[in-house]
Design brief:
mainly beta; about 575 residues; Immunoglobulin-like; six-stranded mixed beta sheet; globular; 4 helices; about 5% helix
Length: about 575
């Protein structure tokens, strides 16, 4: 089956003349408003002749609806897990509290509903949602759970930009996958030789002969795309991960690593009846980037299963554009300017952290092993950093391995200061939450930790090559501030350990005269659990994963401690 697909791919690459792709691009439906229901479910898709492919999706067989949200609005999410597996949903790039972030410490068990609610604080940009369960992220994303989030704000609304979803504004979720002989998706594979956009194979899209806007997401597990048009026509980047740029940036190439997003304008004015292709010019990728001829910085560094693969180091089509008649009210001009972008001055930083990426097993075979951050692998019971609320920090990322790593941090957007001491290209000078760090490269960024503090629930940082993330190339930090610890924490000696745990907690009361105790969930509902007195305190057992609050009542005061129950592995 793989040989047949590869032969078909090469037929697409070398055939001459006008070539029409096979399938109309699927456009995900839209959900908006203050109440959003997301049902995580299994499904199947007939990608190839023969056996259907088992998939996972949100409100459907594969992928999920696009969420269009507005800055300043409050949104209540209802995430129902109808899978057989525990999972999570992370709002990638969005600035929300740690308990709403959807990281590994907020698992959603099968048959349960997670209901985070938060105000949209983000600038207009393209974000996305996907699972983030420790050691299982790649499986759930590869099988199909991912969706786009489009945030609008007043600044974006004042610009003359296309914004009629499905007519002159389109989401493009670009992914590569590997399929076995039975047409099933292979997880943790380095032979991802099938390209799809919005879960559509060999897609085409009818676009009007005018300026068209694309929200582009690299949703692949590992592959970096070097985007461009087949005729080297200029296109315009108007936004990076977390916000609009100061002005449209004319480009013929845009590098997009896993997890990165960009908003693009393409001017098809006067081109009715013509065809164009969005391509990846992978032949131009330097070695050491997943997608180049060699995934390692030197050709002798082999990655198992990486070759032969017709996508590696070769230019290939991603999506065909067929230009049709313009809409009734077309946008026909690229705006001269966009919004004011104000990077954080380096002089405002009060903390600098250094994170070093290294292979667990150095040497020519390192690509087939695990990768570490500061010599450590992910441990859900270890907080790697404590950040203080309202601090401005510089993070220095040093890649001492032979492969590039797209680094992602939760909670915040950042501004790239430099790459090996050189200012970043214009395409990376906006707000970012993912940055590709090449082999033997040092990247510095600056960010500010605002609004949210929680001493119990951490945020993540990690490589967004999902195989690396699942293998432990991840760490976690908590943000401490005035609201991070309950006000009575300093005056009472109550401690809880381990926290997080798999459900069993030891509570040391430190002599506090506890008369009664109760556990509530995040909605204020009392939880059925077991509380036993032991020498020096209490033993608390909570049977279901989630975030809870233990209240201890004494004659003098009430003490509250947050308890995090995570799924054991």
């Amino acid at each position: 089956m793989r040989c047949i697909r590869q032969l078909f791919f090469w037929a697409l690459v070398i055939s001459a003349g006008r070539l029409f792709s096979q399938n109309a691009l699927q456009i995900p439906p839209v959900l908006s408003g203050g109440q959003i229901q997301l049902n995580l479910q299994t499904g199947s898709v007939q990608f190839f002749n023969g056996q259907p492919t088992a998939t996972m999706g949100v409100n459907g067989n594969i992928l999920g609806p696009s969420l269009i949200l507005h800055k300043g609005d409050f949104v209540q999410m209802h995430v129902q897990n109808n899978l057989d597996d525990t999972t999570t949903i992370h709002w990638h790039g969005m600035h929300v509290s740690a308990e709403n972030d959807g990281g590994p410490h907020t698992p959603i068990a099968p048959g349960t509903t997670w209901e985070p609610g938060f105000t949209i604080l983000d600038k207009a940009a393209t974000y996305w949602y996907h699972p983030h369960l420790h050691k299982h992220t790649d499986a759930h994303v590869s099988k199909g759970i991912a969706g786009m989030i489009i945030v609008r704000d007043d600044e974006e609304g004042a610009l003359n930009l296309p914004r009629t979803y499905g007519m002159d504004e389109f989401p493009l979720v670009i992914q590569t996958k590997d399929f076995d002989a039975d047409n099933q998706i292979v997880v943790h594979s380095n032979n991802d030789d099938v390209v799809m956009v919005n879960a559509t194979l060999d897609p085409y899209l009818d676009v009007p002969a005018q300026v068209v806007r694309f929200h582009v997401l690299n949703g692949s597990s590992q592959r970096t795309f070097n985007l461009g048009l087949n005729d080297n026509q200029t296109f315009y980047q108007i936004a990076s991960d977390g916000g609009l740029l100061s002005e449209p940036l004319p480009l013929t190439r845009l590098l997009l690593a896993p997890g990165e997003r960009a908003e693009l304008l393409i001017d098809f004015t006067g081109q009715e009846g013509q065809d164009h292709y969005l391509m990846s010019y992978a032949s131009e990728l330097q070695n050491g980037i997943y997608g180049a001829s060699s995934a390692g910085m030197m050709p002798m560094m082999n990655l198992d299963g990486y070759n032969p693969n017709p996508l590696n180091g070769t230019d290939f089509n991603i999506l065909q554009f067929h230009v049709v008649a313009p809409t009734a009210n077309p946008v026909t001009a690229i705006p001269a300017s966009l919004v004011q972008v104000t990077p954080i001055p380096e002089s405002q930083a009060n903390v600098t952290r250094t994170l070093t990426f290294s292979p667990a097993s150095p040497g020519p075979n390192q690509l087939n092993g695990k990768f570490l951050i500061n010599g450590q692998s992910m441990d859900l019971d270890v907080i790697n950093y404590t950040v203080h609320l309202n601090d401005t920090e510089i993070w220095e990322l040093r890649n001492m391995s032979a492969i590039s790593h797209p680094f992602h941090i939760h909670d915040v957007q950042f501004y790239i200061l430099d790459r090996n001491g050189v200012p970043p290209p214009a395409s990376e000078q906006g707000r970012k939450d993912v940055v590709l760090v090449r082999p033997m490269e040092t990247v510095r960024f600056i960010t500010r930790f605002e609004d949210f503090a929680d001493d119990a629930v951490p945020y993540m940082y990690h490589c967004h090559l999902l195989t690396h993330e699942d293998d432990g190339m991840m760490g976690q930090f908590v943000v401490k501030g005035p609201d991070a610890v309950h006000p009575d924490a300093a005056s009472t000696p109550v401690t809880v350990f381990p926290n997080p745990s798999s459900g069993d907690f030891m509570v040391r009361t430190g002599g506090l005269d506890v008369r009664s105790s109760v556990v509530f969930d995040q909605l204020g509902r009392q939880v059925a659990c077991t509380i036993h007195p032991v020498n020096g305190g209490l033993q608390v057992t909570i049977p279901r994963p989630g975030a809870y609050y233990l209240k201890l009542f004494s004659p003098a005061q009430t003490v509250i401690r947050k308890l995090i129950v995570q799924r054991p592995f």
